[in-house]
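Figure 6 in text form: structure in, sequence out.
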Protein backbone atom coordinates (compact mmCIF):
# COMPACT_ATOMS: atom_id res chain seq x y z
CA UNK A 1 0.00 0.00 0.00
CA UNK A 2 1.10 3.52 -0.74
CA UNK A 3 1.28 6.04 2.08
CA UNK A 4 0.88 9.53 0.61
CA UNK A 5 2.07 12.64 2.40
CA UNK A 6 0.84 16.02 1.24
CA UNK A 7 3.17 18.99 1.73
CA UNK A 8 1.15 22.16 1.49
CA UNK A 9 0.75 25.76 2.59
CA UNK A 10 -0.80 28.49 0.48
CA UNK A 11 2.17 30.74 1.37
CA UNK A 12 4.92 30.82 -1.24
CA UNK A 13 8.53 30.09 -0.42
CA UNK A 14 7.95 28.49 2.99
CA UNK A 15 9.85 25.31 2.10
CA UNK A 16 7.27 22.98 0.55
CA UNK A 17 9.64 21.76 -2.16
CA UNK A 18 12.60 21.55 0.22
CA UNK A 19 10.52 19.49 2.63
CA UNK A 20 9.04 17.29 -0.12
CA UNK A 21 12.34 16.52 -1.88
CA UNK A 22 14.28 15.81 1.32
CA UNK A 23 11.47 13.70 2.76
CA UNK A 24 11.23 11.65 -0.43
CA UNK A 25 14.99 11.09 -0.29
CA UNK A 26 14.78 10.06 3.38
CA UNK A 27 12.27 7.36 2.43
CA UNK A 28 14.32 6.25 -0.57
CA UNK A 29 17.47 6.08 1.56
CA UNK A 30 15.49 3.96 4.02
CA UNK A 31 14.92 1.39 1.28
CA UNK A 32 11.30 2.31 0.52
CA UNK A 33 10.06 2.60 -3.05
CA UNK A 34 9.29 6.27 -3.27
CA UNK A 35 7.62 8.68 -5.68
CA UNK A 36 7.47 12.46 -5.68
CA UNK A 37 4.39 14.07 -7.24
CA UNK A 38 4.76 17.68 -8.37
CA UNK A 39 1.52 19.68 -8.53
CA UNK A 40 3.27 23.00 -9.08
CA UNK A 41 3.48 24.32 -12.65
CA UNK A 42 6.99 25.56 -11.88
CA UNK A 43 7.93 21.88 -11.51
CA UNK A 44 10.67 22.54 -8.97
CA UNK A 45 10.49 19.01 -7.56
CA UNK A 46 10.62 17.38 -10.99
CA UNK A 47 13.56 19.56 -11.99
CA UNK A 48 15.32 18.62 -8.77
CA UNK A 49 14.80 14.96 -9.64
CA UNK A 50 16.36 15.55 -13.07
CA UNK A 51 19.48 16.88 -11.36
CA UNK A 52 19.61 13.99 -8.91
CA UNK A 53 22.72 11.85 -9.46
CA UNK A 54 21.89 8.41 -10.87
CA UNK A 55 23.88 6.53 -8.22
CA UNK A 56 21.62 7.79 -5.40
CA UNK A 57 18.51 5.85 -4.28
CA UNK A 58 15.86 6.21 -6.94
CA UNK A 59 12.80 8.46 -6.56
CA UNK A 60 10.09 8.28 -9.25
CA UNK A 61 8.73 11.61 -10.49
CA UNK A 62 5.04 12.18 -11.24
CA UNK A 63 3.83 15.23 -13.10
CA UNK A 64 0.60 16.17 -11.35
CA UNK A 65 0.24 19.64 -12.84
CA UNK A 66 -2.68 18.53 -15.01
CA UNK A 67 -4.00 15.32 -13.54
CA UNK A 68 -3.21 13.10 -10.62
CA UNK A 69 -1.78 9.99 -12.23
CA UNK A 70 -1.66 7.05 -9.79
CA UNK A 71 1.81 5.92 -8.72
CA UNK A 72 3.01 2.43 -9.56
CA UNK A 73 1.51 -0.32 -7.39
CA UNK A 74 4.89 -1.03 -5.85
CA UNK A 75 5.30 2.53 -4.54
CA UNK A 76 5.37 2.54 -0.72
CA UNK A 77 5.72 6.28 -0.10
CA UNK A 78 4.34 9.11 -2.20
CA UNK A 79 5.30 12.69 -1.34
CA UNK A 80 3.10 15.37 -2.90
CA UNK A 81 4.56 18.85 -3.45
CA UNK A 82 1.66 21.31 -3.65
CA UNK A 83 1.83 24.78 -5.21
CA UNK A 84 1.62 28.14 -3.45
CA UNK A 85 -1.71 30.01 -3.57
CA UNK A 86 -3.56 26.68 -3.68
CA UNK A 87 -7.35 26.89 -3.59
CA UNK A 88 -9.33 25.04 -0.94
CA UNK A 89 -10.95 22.99 -3.72
CA UNK A 90 -7.58 21.86 -5.07
CA UNK A 91 -6.35 21.19 -1.56
CA UNK A 92 -9.42 19.06 -0.90
CA UNK A 93 -8.72 16.97 -4.01
CA UNK A 94 -5.16 16.32 -2.86
CA UNK A 95 -6.31 15.66 0.70
CA UNK A 96 -8.50 12.86 -0.59
CA UNK A 97 -5.41 11.12 -1.98
CA UNK A 98 -3.27 11.62 1.15
CA UNK A 99 -2.89 10.00 4.53
CA UNK A 100 -1.05 12.83 6.31
CA UNK A 101 -0.40 16.52 5.75
CA UNK A 102 2.71 18.56 6.52
CA UNK A 103 2.52 22.32 6.60
CA UNK A 104 5.84 24.19 6.58
CA UNK A 105 5.96 27.63 8.19
CA UNK A 106 8.81 30.13 8.28
CA UNK A 107 9.68 32.19 11.35
CA UNK A 108 8.17 35.33 9.85
CA UNK A 109 5.29 37.53 10.93
CA UNK A 110 3.95 37.55 7.37
CA UNK A 111 4.16 33.78 6.95
CA UNK A 112 2.53 33.18 10.31
CA UNK A 113 -0.43 35.42 9.43
CA UNK A 114 -0.85 33.72 6.04
CA UNK A 115 -0.63 30.30 7.67
CA UNK A 116 -3.31 31.18 10.20
CA UNK A 117 -5.62 32.21 7.33
CA UNK A 118 -4.88 29.02 5.39
CA UNK A 119 -5.47 26.82 8.43
CA UNK A 120 -8.74 28.58 9.17
CA UNK A 121 -9.99 27.42 5.77
CA UNK A 122 -8.66 23.88 5.74
CA UNK A 123 -9.55 23.18 9.37
CA UNK A 124 -13.15 23.19 8.20
CA UNK A 125 -12.59 20.19 5.95
CA UNK A 126 -14.01 17.10 7.58
CA UNK A 127 -10.96 14.78 7.48
CA UNK A 128 -8.91 17.46 9.19
CA UNK A 129 -11.58 18.65 11.60
CA UNK A 130 -12.19 15.09 12.76
CA UNK A 131 -8.48 14.33 12.83
CA UNK A 132 -8.94 11.45 10.40
CA UNK A 133 -5.95 12.76 8.47
CA UNK A 134 -3.28 14.04 10.80
CA UNK A 135 -1.86 17.45 9.98
CA UNK A 136 1.40 18.60 11.49
CA UNK A 137 3.28 21.85 11.24
CA UNK A 138 6.97 22.00 10.36
CA UNK A 139 8.84 25.11 11.49
CA UNK A 140 11.35 25.77 8.71
CA UNK A 141 14.53 27.86 8.35
CA UNK A 142 14.67 28.28 12.09
CA UNK A 143 17.75 29.90 13.59
CA UNK A 144 18.16 28.94 17.23
CA UNK A 145 18.11 31.67 19.85
CA UNK A 146 16.74 34.36 17.57
CA UNK A 147 13.69 36.46 18.23
CA UNK A 148 11.98 35.03 15.17
CA UNK A 149 12.47 31.47 16.43
CA UNK A 150 10.88 32.40 19.75
CA UNK A 151 8.00 34.19 18.00
CA UNK A 152 7.43 31.14 15.79
CA UNK A 153 7.32 28.80 18.78
CA UNK A 154 4.84 31.07 20.57
CA UNK A 155 2.70 31.21 17.44
CA UNK A 156 2.74 27.46 16.86
CA UNK A 157 1.66 26.89 20.45
CA UNK A 158 -1.58 28.75 19.68
CA UNK A 159 -2.48 26.31 16.87
CA UNK A 160 -4.42 23.13 17.36
CA UNK A 161 -1.99 20.99 15.40
CA UNK A 162 1.22 19.35 16.57
CA UNK A 163 4.62 20.61 15.50
CA UNK A 164 6.37 17.66 13.86
CA UNK A 165 9.81 19.30 13.63
CA UNK A 166 11.84 22.47 13.65
CA UNK A 167 14.19 22.50 10.69
CA UNK A 168 17.26 24.70 10.92
CA UNK A 169 18.21 27.20 8.24
CA UNK A 170 21.23 25.60 6.56
CA UNK A 171 23.13 26.11 3.30
CA UNK A 172 22.99 22.31 2.86
CA UNK A 173 19.37 22.73 1.75
CA UNK A 174 20.06 25.50 -0.74
CA UNK A 175 23.11 23.62 -2.09
CA UNK A 176 21.09 20.41 -2.37
CA UNK A 177 18.42 22.23 -4.36
CA UNK A 178 21.03 22.85 -7.07
CA UNK A 179 22.52 19.38 -7.06
CA UNK A 180 19.53 17.08 -6.60
CA UNK A 181 21.11 15.78 -3.41
CA UNK A 182 19.25 15.69 -0.10
CA UNK A 183 20.64 15.93 3.41
CA UNK A 184 19.92 12.18 3.68
CA UNK A 185 22.26 11.34 0.83
CA UNK A 186 25.31 12.48 2.80
CA UNK A 187 27.01 11.16 5.90
CA UNK A 188 29.34 13.93 6.99
CA UNK A 189 28.98 15.76 10.28
CA UNK A 190 26.96 18.65 8.85
CA UNK A 191 24.51 16.30 7.14
CA UNK A 192 24.09 14.25 10.30
CA UNK A 193 23.34 17.38 12.30
CA UNK A 194 20.71 18.36 9.72
CA UNK A 195 19.18 14.87 9.74
CA UNK A 196 18.71 15.04 13.51
CA UNK A 197 16.08 17.79 12.98
CA UNK A 198 13.96 15.33 11.00
CA UNK A 199 13.72 12.41 13.42
CA UNK A 200 10.60 13.71 15.18
CA UNK A 201 8.97 14.30 11.78
CA UNK A 202 9.71 10.76 10.57
CA UNK A 203 8.35 9.41 13.88
CA UNK A 204 5.18 11.50 13.46
CA UNK A 205 4.62 10.00 9.99
CA UNK A 206 5.36 6.46 11.09
CA UNK A 207 3.00 6.60 14.04
CA UNK A 208 0.12 8.49 12.43
N1 LIG B 1 15.77 24.90 5.97
C1 LIG B 1 16.24 25.65 4.98
N2 LIG B 1 17.49 26.18 5.04
C2 LIG B 1 17.98 26.95 4.04
N3 LIG B 1 17.31 27.26 2.94
C3 LIG B 1 16.06 26.80 2.82
C4 LIG B 1 15.46 25.96 3.81
N4 LIG B 1 14.20 25.65 3.39
C5 LIG B 1 14.03 26.25 2.21
N5 LIG B 1 15.13 26.93 1.84
C6 LIG B 1 15.32 27.74 0.63
O1 LIG B 1 14.26 28.68 0.56
C7 LIG B 1 13.82 28.85 -0.78
C8 LIG B 1 12.32 28.51 -0.87
O2 LIG B 1 12.16 27.15 -0.53
P1 LIG B 1 11.20 26.17 -1.37
O3 LIG B 1 11.40 26.37 -2.81
O4 LIG B 1 11.37 24.83 -0.79
O5 LIG B 1 9.79 26.78 -0.94
P2 LIG B 1 8.36 26.48 -1.58
O6 LIG B 1 7.37 26.62 -0.48
O7 LIG B 1 8.39 25.20 -2.32
O8 LIG B 1 8.22 27.68 -2.61
P3 LIG B 1 7.05 27.86 -3.73
O9 LIG B 1 5.86 28.39 -2.97
O10 LIG B 1 7.63 28.84 -4.68
O11 LIG B 1 6.80 26.51 -4.32
C9 LIG B 1 14.70 27.94 -1.63
O12 LIG B 1 15.76 28.70 -2.14
C10 LIG B 1 15.21 26.90 -0.63
O13 LIG B 1 16.47 26.38 -1.01
MG1 LIG C 1 7.79 24.72 -4.28
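Output sequence:
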Amino acid sequence: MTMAILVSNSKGGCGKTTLATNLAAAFAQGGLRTALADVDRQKSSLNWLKRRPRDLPRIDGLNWTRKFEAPGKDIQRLVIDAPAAISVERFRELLRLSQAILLPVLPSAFDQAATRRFLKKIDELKPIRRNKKPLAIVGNRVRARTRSAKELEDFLRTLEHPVAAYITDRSLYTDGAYSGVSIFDKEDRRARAAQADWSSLITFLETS
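Caption detail: The first strand starts at residue 3 and ends at 7.
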